[in-house]
């Protein structure tokens, strides 16, 4: 029938708009992931084996994973705390509304600012010969290096990661804070609850799934950050992304399939963290609707 044919043609054209995204996802996400997963369970001769996964249980690889987990968790936790405080200030904290839009715009840009440019910015600012490092030493007599500060270290990497972790937290938690209904606070006040009691018994329990889910997302975001860590610390810090990068260059791990297993382990960890985020976000949205 003509009407049905026309409707079917419009539907096909709508789906056609998704074709570039589908092609991009298959070529640069799904196929590479499958290649890594298959390679993690292959021998150099192409046979099936679990040995590559078992070989991850070596001191150097265990240490790399553990340092990566610590860096990712520390940056995620600090990013959540600082980002939540900033988001609360612009939503329910009474700050002028003119501050909100510039902060959210900056957060949208900063949350995607990573890799070599971010590493260079921090090295040029608070690195061993950075602008602030030299100014503090010459103007105030404060020697950061003598005090133990080293940007090219685990704490330095955590602070660098905060540059994109905090903005990401602001972007994600701001809608959740906007979803807190004024009627809930008014009802709590009518029943005699103080502001502290409202947050302990109403506000934070409702936001808890969002907070925990965002913590998981920030953890995955930091755990998979490769370019920033490599550009900032090079091979001096033993974390999983740098170990994987060294394997890709052929510097370590004589068995390339062990490198696939290392990447597979990173995929599993980030996948679990993202699954937790998706699950908790869906639960939080049910409360805030």
UniProtKB/TrEMBL annotation:
Name by which UniProt lists this protein: ABC transporter permease subunit
Source organism per UniProt: Stappia albiluteola
Location of the protein in the cell: Cell membrane
Recorded GO CC terms: plasma membrane
Keywords on record: Cell membrane, Membrane, Transmembrane, Transmembrane helix, Transport
InterPro entries: MetI-like (IPR000515), MetI-like_sf (IPR035906)
A biological process from GO: transmembrane transport
Organism domain of life: Bacteria
Residue intervals of the ABC transmembrane type-1 domain: 65-277
């Amino acid at each position: 029938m003509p009407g049905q044919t026309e409707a079917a043609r419009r539907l096909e054209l709508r789906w056609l708009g998704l074709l570039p995204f589908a092609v991009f996802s298959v070529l640069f996400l799904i196929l590479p992931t499958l290649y890594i997963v298959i390679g993690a369970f292959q021998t150099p001769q192409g046979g099936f084996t679990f040995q590559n996964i078992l070989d991850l249980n070596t001191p150097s690889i265990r240490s790399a994973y553990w340092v990566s987990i610590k860096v990712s968790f520390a940056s995620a936790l600090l990013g959540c705390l600082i980002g939540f405080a900033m988001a609360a200030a612009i939503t329910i904290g009474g700050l002028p509304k003119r501050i909100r839009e510039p902060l959210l715009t900056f957060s949208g840009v900063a949350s995607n600012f990573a890799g070599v440019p971010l590493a260079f910015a921090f090295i040029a600012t608070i690195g061993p010969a950075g602008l602030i490092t030299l100014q503090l030493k010459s103007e105030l007599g404060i020697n950061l290096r003598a005090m133990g500060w080293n940007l090219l270290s685990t704490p330095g990497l955590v602070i660098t990661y905060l540059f994109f972790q905090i903005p990401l937290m602001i972007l994600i938690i701001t809608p959740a804070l906007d979803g807190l209904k004024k009627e809930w606070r008014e009802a709590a006040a009518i029943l005699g609850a103080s502001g502290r009691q409202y947050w302990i018994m109403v506000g934070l329990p409702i936001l808890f799934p969002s907070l925990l889910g965002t913590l998981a997302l920030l953890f995955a975001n930091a755990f998979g950050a490769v370019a920033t860590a490599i550009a900032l610390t090079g091979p001096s810090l033993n974390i999983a992304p740098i170990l994987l990068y060294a394997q890709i260059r052929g510097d370590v791990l004589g068995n390339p399939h062990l490198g696939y297993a290392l990447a597979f382990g990173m995929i599993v960890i980030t996948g679990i963290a993202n699954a937790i985020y998706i699950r908790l976000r869906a639960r939080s949205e049910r409360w805030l609707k």
